[in-house]
Amino acid sequence: MEGCAITSAPSSDPRCNHRIRAREVRVIADDGSQVGIIPTSEALRMAQEKGLDLVEVAPNAEPPVCRIMDFGRFKYQQQKKLQEARKKATTVQLKEIKVRPKTDEHDYQTKLKHIRRFIEDGDRCKVTVFFRGREIVHKDRGLTILTRVVADLGELIKVEQEPRTEGRMMTMLLAPQVKKPTVPA
């Protein structure tokens, strides 16, 4: 009975005990059996006799449906379900790899390995070619590096944003290729 406060409870919580405004309610007992349509005062008395709360589970029904249950335990179980759902949710991050037009072969291979790892982990990857000084004149070298990355990763990626120049940087956005489920014939 202590689980349902009469005072300032959040509006997202279902109404319980004396906060239920309907004159008559359809009552479901704590064991799940239907009690029937009875006056709210009678339903409250039944809940108090069992040491439980009367909780409105379907307020829009005619008459509203209420259940006799331990409200504190009900809220705890809902909170646990919400935590479990958050734990299972996946978050996609945006990783960034920076290269220069003069990046050497070994450094390129290392950065390519990092991109491959990010994509296999399910993250999106932003590849940035950074031009310094007079390198900005040779934008074709930056474009060559970005097209080489796409060619080297092949089927593993899809290009979400084509290479484009913004000031002294040329960027391209890569995402993991959506794998189509194979249907056995």
UniProtKB/TrEMBL annotation:
<comment type="function">
    <text>IF-3 binds to the 30S ribosomal subunit and shifts the equilibrium between 70S ribosomes and their 50S and 30S subunits in favor of the free subunits, thus enhancing the availability of 30S subunits on which protein synthesis initiation begins.</text>
</comment>
<dbReference type="Pfam" id="PF05198">
    <property type="entry name" value="IF3_N"/>
</dbReference>
<dbReference type="GO" id="GO:0043022">
    <property type="term" value="F:ribosome binding"/>
</dbReference>
<dbReference type="Pfam" id="PF00707">
    <property type="entry name" value="IF3_C"/>
</dbReference>
<feature type="domain" description="Translation initiation factor 3 N-terminal">
    <location>
        <begin position="17"/>
        <end position="85"/>
    </location>
</feature>
<protein>
    <recommendedName>
        <fullName>Translation initiation factor IF-3</fullName>
    </recommendedName>
</protein>
<dbReference type="InterPro" id="IPR019815">
    <property type="entry name" value="Translation_initiation_fac_3_C"/>
</dbReference>
<dbReference type="GO" id="GO:0016020">
    <property type="term" value="C:membrane"/>
</dbReference>
<dbReference type="GO" id="GO:0032790">
    <property type="term" value="P:ribosome disassembly"/>
</dbReference>
<feature type="domain" description="Translation initiation factor 3 C-terminal">
    <location>
        <begin position="92"/>
        <end position="177"/>
    </location>
</feature>
<dbReference type="InterPro" id="IPR019814">
    <property type="entry name" value="Translation_initiation_fac_3_N"/>
</dbReference>
<dbReference type="InterPro" id="IPR019813">
    <property type="entry name" value="Translation_initiation_fac3_CS"/>
</dbReference>
<comment type="similarity">
    <text>Belongs to the IF-3 family.</text>
</comment>
<keyword id="KW-0648">Protein biosynthesis</keyword>
<dbReference type="InterPro" id="IPR036787">
    <property type="entry name" value="T_IF-3_N_sf"/>
</dbReference>
<dbReference type="GO" id="GO:0003743">
    <property type="term" value="F:translation initiation factor activity"/>
</dbReference>
<dbReference type="InterPro" id="IPR001288">
    <property type="entry name" value="Translation_initiation_fac_3"/>
</dbReference>
<dbReference type="InterPro" id="IPR036788">
    <property type="entry name" value="T_IF-3_C_sf"/>
</dbReference>
<comment type="subunit">
    <text>Monomer.</text>
</comment>
<keyword id="KW-0963">Cytoplasm</keyword>
<keyword id="KW-0396">Initiation factor</keyword>
<dbReference type="GO" id="GO:0005829">
    <property type="term" value="C:cytosol"/>
</dbReference>
